[in-house]
Design a protein that fits this description.
By secondary structure, the chain is mostly helical. The protein is 77% helix and 0% strand. The radius of gyration is 22 Å and the shape is elongated. It starts with a helix and ends with a helix.
């Protein structure tokens, strides 16, 4: 009976989930092995191959400068994946801390956190990021920090909603009776017990973060040339569309879309399964 119970969930995984997971593994492997797997350097210019179509020499074609698109996609996956991970790390630290504090202390602390997050929600996130970039200058680091701050209210509200329910459980009162401080209870028990649900939510947000960073790079606020960031590649490839060459835009655009959809598929299923396992 135990064997049947443990093998059934794996057999019931939807085909879409399996395809999304396999694709993301392939993308991560390509990013990690880019120096070995890429046939060319990402900034290697070959004007003889300008806007080359798919061929044995250039499997995904070449851009307007003759740079191999496959090589740029592989190297660009590094910044395109690390960027969302970094911004979610910033947003998670701030958001989980604020949401947990609001749920634990309630009263004026909860009211203050709620008002701050409401103000942030009322202020368009992209506009906030543009203002930060205008003050501190363009670049991936500035864009990541700005988006991390912009995503903080979303994670704070989600964390607070979970923490309010968690704080009402008997084990919290039991630790209080034992004389544990609120900080110790939150760090050692409350936050770890919420971690599974929060992680599932962050996986869903990863795709949105990737899209946001790509948008900033497309607008010129994020990655700067000669970076092979996917959003920047889409921007640079626009000029080639006038000449009837769509690969410089289609290849990075498809990479962004497929990664975002894959993370959404995996994130939704992961969040559902983790929520179902919560005691």
């Amino acid at each position: 009976m135990t064997l049947v119970a443990t093998t059934m969930p794996a057999a019931r995984r939807p085909l879409g989930f399996q395809l999304a997971a396999a694709f993301l593994v392939l993308v991560v492997a390509g990013a990690a092995l880019a120096p070995v797997a890429a046939p060319y350097a990402p900034d290697a210019v070959d004007f003889a191959a300008t806007l080359s179509p798919m061929s044995p020499a250039h499997l995904l074609g070449a851009d307007q400068s003759g740079r191999d698109l496959l090589s740029r996609i592989l190297y660009g996956a590094q910044t395109s994946l690390i960027g969302p991970l970094a911004l979610l790390a910033i947003a998670s630290v701030l958001g989980v801390a604020l949401g947990t504090a609001a749920a634990w202390w309630r009263g004026w602390v909860d009211a203050l956190v709620s008002r701050v997050t409401d103000v942030m929600y009322a202020f368009p996130g992209l506009l906030f990021v543009v203002l930060v970039v205008a003050v501190f200058g363009n670049g991936v680091t500035t864009a990541v920090v700005a988006l991390g701050l912009a995503y903080t209210p979303t994670i704070a509200k989600y964390t607070r909603a979970i923490a309010v329910t968690e704080c009402a459980k008997p084990y919290i009162d039991a630790y209080r009776v034992q004389g544990m401080s609120g900080f110790t209870i939150c760090v050692r028990y409350l936050v770890p017990n919420m971690a599974r649900a929060i992680v599932g939510y962050l996986v869903v947000l990863f795709g949105e973060g990737l899209m946001s960073l790509a948008t900033l790079s497309f607008l010129g606020f994020g990655a700067q040339p000669p970076s092979s960031d996917w959003g920047l590649m889409v921007k640079e490839g626009q000029a080639a569309m006038v000449q009837g060459a769509f690969l410089p835009v289609l290849v990075p655009g498809a990479a962004i879309a497929l990664v975002v959809v894959s993370f959404n598929v995996i994130g939704v299923r992961l969040a559902d399964r983790l929520a179902a396992r919560r005691p």
